[in-house]
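Continuing the batch. This is chain 6 of the set; chains 1 through 5 are on the previous pages. Same settings as before, nothing changed between runs. Recording input and output for traceability.
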Amino acid sequence: MTTLLTLRVAARLVLLLALVAGAAHAQGTTPRDETGVPAEGKPKLRPERVAAEVVGGTYAGVAGYFVGRGIGTIATSMMSAEQERTRDRIVDAVGWVGAAFAIGGTVYAIGDIGAETGSFRSTMGGVAVGAATSLALSRVVFRGRMGRNAVSGTRKWWLATLECSLPAIGGTIAFNASRKWQR
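Output for chain 6:
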């Protein structure tokens, strides 16, 4: 079972690398001025780039969440045992902030490849809207977060997918709405 899981993760990473490489290579054949940038218009929306932004942002968000939780754990390690509930809230909040910046940074970095750019502020706004939507839907559909001893693996999977994917989708939509040629 562990080998199968490892193969799935490896296959997803290879797919992500292929999508990013394809996005970097697939620059359009638009007429360009002397600087090499198209004279006018907005860059075409390419599906391979959008897919790389969503998939990359989702996986970066998971990693950013755990890195943020690690930083929060270190930062709160000197708090007393009586403040354990507060410590857990701080650690979780730092994890979510880490996930948000990891998602926004990844979406922006993939979208900024080549002669295109967009707004990082808009990207982070989209991540925030996606995270708020994710939180609202998880509360409605799953009645909030499940406890550590929840039995349903399927429900845990759907909740994790919802919480990780919607912020990446929101960031991707916002970034692509602000896309322009780099000048």
